[in-house]
Design goal:
Length: 154
């Protein structure tokens, strides 16, 4: 009787769900020259207003579907301005340090990505970007915005 009960309970349990992203391959943070589109992996973004951007890329293989992405970016302090980000769908939280953006993206090209450009008034220090797709945390990327010794003084 005991073994029948255990078999009945085991049969009633749903099969373990397959992970939503079996083919997730990881991520990279790039510094990007917006004029040449040259990019390089880094964890330190130089403070070069209007002359450099940073872009995170999540890589996938074998996926062919659309996902809902939620990006939360946290700055060390509120920037002077979020610029056009709110008009483009980023919700800035009350403390001014965090912005949340939700969007859909296709995995047809093997990646999802998002780019931010450095503007005057962005704070130096540690940044954190949390990336979720279809409700699953993919990555939390940490990097620093650092003073640029090549930046001309005002």
């Amino acid at each position: 009787m005991m073994s029948f009960l255990l078999l009945a309970i085991a049969a009633a349990q749903p099969a373990a769900a397959e992970p939503p992203f079996r083919e997730y391959r990881g991520s990279t943070l790039f510094a990007v020259d917006p004029l040449s589109e040259e990019r390089y992996p880094t964890v330190a973004i130089p403070y070069r207003p209007d002359a450099i951007c940073y872009e995170w890329v999540q890589f996938f293989a074998g996926e062919n579907r659309v996902v809902t992405v939620r990006e939360t970016i946290e700055l060390p302090a509120a920037p002077a301005s979020w610029g056009a980000a709110p008009a483009l769908g980023t919700r800035v939280e009350a403390d001014g340090r965090r912005g949340v953006t939700e969007f859909s993206d296709s995995l047809d090209d093997g990646q999802i990505n998002r780019r931010w450009c450095v503007v005057r008034g962005d704070p130096l220090g540690p940044y954190r970007i949390r990336i979720e797709a279809d409700g699953q945390l993919l990555e939390e990327i940490r990097f620093d915005m650092v003073a640029d010794t090549a930046e001309p003084k005002d």
